[in-house]
Amino acid sequence: MLNTKKWSYGTFNSFRSALSLILPGEIGKDIYIRRFLKSISKTRPSKPNYDVTWEPQIVLNHIEEKFPHDELPLRELGKKLTTLLTLITGHRLQTLSLIKVENIYFEPDGVQILIIDNIKTSRPKSEHPCDPLL
User: Fold this and answer.
1) Is 87 helix (H, G, I), strand (E, B) or coil?
2) Measuring CA to CA, how many Å separate 134 from each of 43, 64, 76, 77, 107?
3) 3-state helix, strand, coil in the chain (%, to 5)
4) CA distances from 103 to 85, 100, 110 (A)
5) 3-class DSSP assignment, residue 110
6) How many helices and strands in the chain, by DSSP H and E?
7) 3-state DSSP call for residue 51?
8) Considering the entire predicted model, what is its pTM?
């Protein structure tokens, strides 16, 4: 099991969590388990979620070409709005799909869009953070 590179630190940490559920005592505080997991974390560090980044200016330049708005088909205008919302908020597409017209509020200093449905990162009995869009 240890001589394969297939399993990462997260896998072993999940094993530890599973064992702590079924075994008595606090296995996570055991000195041998802690030392073992520390060595695993050093030999198999976590990988970054993303391998590459991209330049948003390329997308903004493409969007800028789609002007004037009154000549755009509604579908293209919707794509432009979705792209801009994604860029300025950093929200997932799932979150943007939960936008409801009745939860959009226009205020003197900007626009506020409330997402009241549960999203991937929702926790039980916690409020969603409210991001004002300016």
Assistant:
1) helix
2) 45, 19, 22, 19, 10
3) 50, 5, 45
4) 15, 5, 14
5) strand
6) 5, 3
7) coil
8) 0.55
Cis peptide before 108 (omega within 30 of 0): no
For residue range 86-116, what is the model confidence (pLDDT) as tens digits?
Answer: 898 888 888 888 889 998 899 998 888 888 8
Report how far residue 71's alpha carbon sits from residue 81's, in angstroms, rounded to the nearest whole number.
15
DSSP state of 119: -
3-state secondary structure 3-34: CCCCCCHHHHHHHHHHHHHHCCCCHHHCHHHH
pLDDT digits (tens, 9 = 90+) for 40-62: 888 887 777 778 888 999 999 99
Burial 116-126 (b: 16+ CB within 10 A, else e): eeeeeeeeeee
Beta strands in the chain (DSSP E): 104-107, 110-113, 132-133
